[in-house]
């Protein structure tokens, strides 16, 4: 179980998250929804150790991991696929993948990446920056996948991509979850996120306004109230 317990966080003196409690049970998919600026990206940054909370705790299997450096959280199985992907454009696909491989297991782990996204195999020697947005996103996801994450933090991973690529990415997310990873998913395609989610959190101005199962949200006006549009 991964948990943010009563977390407040932000940047400098600017408070973005206020007293946020959020739980990601083992093997579950949690969708984190909210309007632009609600604090979703900040919450993922807190979860991966990039932003240190002002108050509150991060717990991983009841162990207090608050204040651990990001690489320690990676070692504990927390993988962050950030907004903007974070791939290195001037490195090849192979070298982007190699940076996330364990010593001595490079070939096996790269094969695993190609197996899940065959198009990466066809571009293995290409510079990442020369690939399409969809291929770069697949590379970012493959880097997380080959590390066998226990918790994947996924920030708008389908943003700006063609529908056929979005389909492939959602198929991948289902495989990732079936293989046992927990997912914390920030996603603009709300209906698609709800279709694979076990639980939903709705964030508004840095506070949690709703926690429940997707069915409960679909039947209520609360999404429209805080996000300003109907679910769709
Ligand atoms: N590095 C930063 N320094 C200062 N303020 C920031 C920084 N990043 C985000 N903010 C502010 O924090 C607030 C929440 O931003 P955040 O990106 O977490 O929201 P979000 O829900 O992910 O929004 P979006 O859907 O637009 O990405 C906003 O007011 C934003 O301007």
From TrEMBL:
It comes from the Bacteria. PROSITE patterns: ABC_TRANSPORTER_1 (PS00211), ABC_TRANSPORTER_2 (PS50893). It holds the Pfam family ABC_tran. One of its GO terms (molecular function) is ATP binding. Keywords: Amino-acid transport, ATP-binding, Nucleotide-binding, Transport. SUPFAM superfamilies: P-loop containing nucleoside triphosphate hydrolases. Coiled coil: none annotated. The keyword ATP-binding applies. Residues 2-230 form the ABC transporter domain. PANTHER family: HIGH-AFFINITY BRANCHED-CHAIN AMINO ACID TRANSPORT ATP-BINDING PROTEIN LIVF. Belongs to the ABC transporter superfamily. This is ABC transporter ATP-binding protein.
């Amino acid at each position: 179980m991964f948990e943010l317990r009563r977390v407040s966080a932000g940047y400098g003196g600017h408070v973005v998250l206020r007293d946020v409690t959020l739980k990601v049970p083992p093997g579950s998919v949690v969708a984190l929804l909210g309007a632009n600026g609600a604090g979703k990206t900040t919450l993922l940054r807190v979860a991966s150790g990039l932003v240190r909370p002002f108050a509150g705790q991060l717990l991983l299997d009841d162990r207090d991991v608050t204040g651990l450096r990001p690489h320690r959280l990676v070692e504990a199985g927390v993988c962050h696929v950030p907004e903007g992907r974070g791939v290195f454009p001037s490195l090849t696909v192979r070298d982007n993948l190699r940076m996330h491989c364990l010593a001595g297991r490079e070939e096996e782990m790269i094969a695993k990446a190609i197996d899940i996204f065959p198009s990466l195999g066809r571009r293995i020697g290409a510079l990442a920056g020369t690939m399409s947005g969809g291929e770069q996103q697949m590379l970012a996801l493959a880097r997380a996948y080959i590390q066998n994450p226990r918790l994947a933090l996924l920030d708008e991973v389908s943003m700006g991509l063609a529908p056929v690529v979005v389909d492939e990415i959602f198929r991948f997310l289902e495989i990732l979850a079936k293989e046992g990873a927990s997912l914390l998913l920030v996603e603009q395609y709300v209906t698609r996120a709800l279709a694979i989610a076990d639980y939903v959190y709705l964030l508004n101005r840095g506070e949690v306004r709703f926690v429940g199962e997707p069915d409960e949200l679909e039947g209520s006006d609360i999404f429209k109230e805080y996000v300003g549009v109907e679910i769709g």
